[in-house]
Amino acid sequence: MSAQAPSAVILVRAERFVPNPATAADNAFQARTPAGQSEQATAAKALAEMDALAEALREAGVRVHVFDDQDHTRPDSVFPNNWLSTHAGGMVAVYPMYASNRRHERRADVLEMLKSSYRVQTIVDYSGLEPDGIFLEGTGAMVLDHVSRVAYTAVSHRADTHVLERFCTDFGYEPMAFDAVDAGGVPVYHTNVIACIGTDVAMIALEMIPDLARREQVRERLSVNGRQVVELTEEQIREFAGNAVELCGRTPDGRRSYVMAMSSRARRSLRPDQVAVIEQSCTLVDVDIPTIELAGGSVRCMIAGVHLDRRPPGVVPEPTPAVAAIDENPHTVDGRDVAGDA
Prior knowledge:
Amdntrnsf_FN0238, 22% strand, Amidinotransferase, disordered C terminus, 3-stranded mixed beta sheet
């Protein structure tokens, strides 16, 4: 089993999904709801898409933890990877979020499930930086190479380099920050829309990194251990081809297998030669999620991977200490409350 590909994931079944107006200003991938379509119809379509993704991942042999959310004030809760990440060795990170109406997506019940079902040693909470206007939106802002321990990060106001460096110190990653922009010079809001890192293959829009020297450094760092780099175009990025994630599933006969999960829209944008490279190490699993993609994110954004060891059945977990990663952070996680939000 690769450290890169988790065999379990967390999904949030957001029953009141709508594209979030609070994030539209800086998310160039976000789109309007079709004219004449009610919020109820949008939510119903999105719910069906979430269920389809959960079922496709289960069929691929991935363990899926689903959490329901009926709160109409959390339009983006379907994207839990922005507030939560898990790491080998029993570490969990909780992140500061840019949009104020996203900050109460953090859920104590998700952390409780992790502590009861997996070995969690420490929860590091950076969310106390929000009042200072400093943000790092999890594995949306960072694309993590868990094998080589590198945190690739497109710099934006959702990805502050000071928090990035602190995260890398706390969790043992090397920061690799860079600017990334579209053809109009608009900064990329989240790194995970332009890059996906698997065990043996990476997909990335290197052409969207304007600094040629930094572009080559990123290419070299991605491929240093023999990983194949599939270069994506900006047009493919706008079809969410970069917003994919490698997971570890099981075949019907119980053998481990790697899958690359993405949307059907993303899959259709890939050229045959790109698909051939991906399929050398992964089976492609794609799901049609056009309603959710209106919010500017795709399959990768919907998945929080679980990189933790499972607890044996019947074992009572030890109390989990919560560590404030920044000295000024007044918030802790005690299993009942996360930064004041239930």
